[in-house]
Each structure stands twice: as structure tokens, then as C-alpha cells.
Amino acid sequence: MTDEDSTFDVLGLLSDPVRRRLYRHVAAAPEEVGREAAAEAVGVSRSLAAFHLDKLVEAGLLAVSFRRLSGRAGPGAGRPAKLYRRAEGEHAVSLPPRSYDAAGRLLAEVLENAGLDRELQAAARTAGAAQPDARADDVEAVLRDRGYEPFWDGETLRLRNCPFHTLATEFPALICGMNLALIEGLAPEQWSPEMDPCPGGCCVALSKKKSH
């Protein structure tokens, strides 16, 4: 079986609507999710949720850990709960096959070697501001539509997912700077984007300016 065939099989699992809703809920959650919470979130029984969640684990779409939710230890503390989180791997299919990642890496390498960080950031900021829904009041919706998976951490709006994860890993200064500039262009004036990495997520976080 080729890598492409394996990816088709993995993504084919998400054709089931319950499984798809469970994956989306767990993937978007800022913390690990237990079976009961996942079942309640999508409106199915705990046993059905457990079945689908474990299928997603087998496919490599979710990862598992075990922890006592009560926080207690020792006799009488109960069994550790099985918790789920989004797996680190990426799955993408292009028909026919394309090599956009290879082109992206080549372009990033050229820009970095040429020292064109500021020019890239200026272009990203302009591109963000030119989007049809840029500066919309609902910044969460704007970011969610672009795959950032925003969530609130106190008064800070953090981003669970980095849409440029692979390139950001290889060229962190270049791509993270571009990403910050892009979000500056997208965000309304009352928001202040800044570099504040979320563990396992995006390098940018947003907070409202004090005047607002």
C-alpha cells in the first residue's frame, strides 16, 4: 500500500458523521477530552463515542493518555480515565498529486537566505487586510475559517492550530513573522496580535487593547 493509499484510508474514516463530529470536537479542544465529555458534546452514548474515538486512535488521527480526573492518587482514587487529543501527524490528499510543500520550502529558503523577512511581512499584512472578511467584528470566526482553531485562555485568544506548521518548523523566524503580520492585517483595530506561542499550537495570540 502506498502512502497515498494509507492517507485515503485514514481520511475515509471521517466519512462517518459521528466520527467526524468527535474528531472536530477533540481536535479543537485546548485540553485532552474524556469519553463522557466527547459523547455529551456530540449527543451520542458514551459507548458509541468510545468506539469511534478508538477507531480514530487506530488511524493515527487522535492520541491517547491516561489520567485520574479527580486529581487524587492512591487507593480509592479510581481508575485513570482515557483521554484523547489530536495527534501530531498531518494528512493531506491532492488529486492529481501536487508538491506545494516542496515549492513552499524552496521559496522560504530563498526568502530567508536573501534576508527578505520585512518584505514578506509587509506582503502578508497587506494580504490579510485585503481579505473580504478582514477587520470583521467576529475575529474568532475569521480565524476559525482559516484553520487557526481559536480558543479563550482567560482574556487571551490563543490559536490551537498553525496552518503553516511544517514550514514554521523548518523556518520559524521567517514563517512566524509572516504569520503575525498576516493576522495583524486580518484582525480588527481593537485587537493586539503578538508572539506568544501556544504549546503544540500557533505562535501568535491575540488580546484586546486596553482602550477597548
Automatic annotation (TrEMBL):
Q: Which Pfam families match?
A: HTH_20
Q: Which InterPro entries match?
A: ArsR-like_HTH (IPR011991), WH-like_DNA-bd_sf (IPR036388), WH_DNA-bd_sf (IPR036390)
Q: What is this protein called?
A: Helix-turn-helix domain-containing protein
Q: What is the lineage of its organism?
A: Bacteria, Bacillati, Actinomycetota, Actinomycetes, Kitasatosporales
